[in-house]
């Protein structure tokens, strides 16, 4: 069983305030770090619903959750369709929902998934590796240069998006781009030399952009925030942990709109961030921002 350190675990539990015997959803199960704590908080009479797009993650998570005594439903799916998931389980509303967005270390460390350039492998990037959606290989080899530039600039916030898109198109005219290393090398060659010296690897933003595009992450999040909020009981809470500004901005604006309609009470005037101690122990938490909202009518 793989080890996993959940981000801001105690803050998440305090935000959710799950009642004993209640019903809760982990919409981004991963390796079940948060789900395990949520299940313990709900107690033996509770009901935990855990969803993930990645069948491999579900298999690992099941091993971790086996010690819990409460009712558990482990489902492969997408939190953007939570209303349908709950209807299928004959659950009308829930007490709390957690969304821990982004990519897990389990997925990043598996070179065969193609999420990271630190491990050479096929350029895939699909959260559901068994699905039939377009992969990152499909995007970099078929999209027009302008489309690639738009994805890299908007989803990666990469200022050299035009240069990178042009370099990709030039290289694929010679040979198909199929591996993470070959794409990272193309990006490095496209950038000014000075740009390669920095805190993050210069290919990071482009890889992030392609991953977001492949998995339609922002569209999923937009639909999912609405579906999740509508699935809460009055008094129920939604806690979202995001890892880049595009996600956090979307969550912030959605929560604001729900507060303006007086349906939701924002629990975080400013996003919570991990302590220095947690960041030292778990580097993934450095970019994490947590926001919460309670349904009040």
Describe, in plain words, how this protein is organized in 3D.
Helices cover 44% and strands 15% of the residues. With 297 residues, it is of the alpha/beta class. Strands 3-2-1-4-5-7-6 form a seven-stranded mixed beta sheet, with helices on both faces. Helix 2 (33-42) links the parallel strand 1 and strand 2 (47-52).
Short summary:
This protein has helices at 9-16, 33-42, 55-65, 82-88, 105-108, 136-142, 145-156, 161-172, 180-190, 204-215, 217-230, 245-260, 276-281, and strands at 23-26, 47-52, 71-76, 94-100, 232-242, 264-266, 289-295. It is of the alpha/beta class and 297 residues long.
Structural class: alpha/beta
Number of helices: 13
> In sequence order, what are the helices and strands, one letter per element?
HEHEHEHEHHHHHHHEHEHE
- Mean pLDDT across all residues, rounded? 92
Topology, number of strands: 7
Termini gap: 42 Å
How would you write the strand order of the largest sheet? 3-2-1-4-5-7-6
The portion of residues forming beta strands comes to 5-15%
């Amino acid at each position: 069983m793989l080890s996993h350190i959940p981000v801001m675990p105690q803050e998440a539990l305090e935000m959710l305030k799950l009642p004993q015997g209640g019903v809760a959803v982990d919409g981004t199960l991963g390796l079940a770090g948060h789900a395990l704590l949520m299940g313990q908080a709900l107690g033996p009479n509770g009901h935990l619903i855990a969803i993930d797009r990645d069948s491999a993650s579900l298999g690992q998570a099941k091993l971790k959750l086996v010690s819990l005594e409460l009712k558990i439903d482990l489902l492969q799916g997408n939190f953007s369709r939570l209303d349908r998931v709950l209807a299928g389980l004959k659950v009308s509303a829930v007490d709390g929902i957690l969304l821990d967005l982004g990519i897990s270390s389990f997925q990043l460390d598996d070179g065969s998934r193609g999420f990271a350039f630190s491990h050479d492998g096929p350029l895939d990037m699909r959260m559901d590796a068994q699905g039939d959606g377009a992969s990152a290989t499909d995007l970099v080899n078929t999209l027009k240069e302008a489309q690639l530039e738009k994805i890299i600039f908007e989803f990666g916030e990469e200022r050299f998006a035009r240069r990178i898109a042009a370099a990709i198109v030039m290289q694929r005219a010679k040979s198909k781009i199929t591996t993470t290393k070959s794409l990272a090398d193309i990006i490095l060659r496209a950038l000014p030399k000075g740009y390669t010296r920095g805190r993050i690897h210069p290919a990071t933003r482009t890889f992030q952009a392609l991953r977001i595009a492949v998995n339609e992450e922002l569209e999923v999040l937009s639909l999912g925030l609405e579906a999740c909020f509508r699935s809460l009981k009055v008094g129920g809470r939604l806690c979202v942990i995001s890892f880049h500004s595009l996600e956090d901005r979307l969550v912030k604006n959605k929560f604001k709109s729900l507060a303006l309609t007086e349906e939701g009470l924002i629990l975080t005037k400013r996003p919570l961030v991990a302590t220095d101690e947690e960041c030292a122990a778990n580097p993934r938490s450095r970019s994490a921002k947590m926001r919460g909202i309670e349904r009040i009518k």
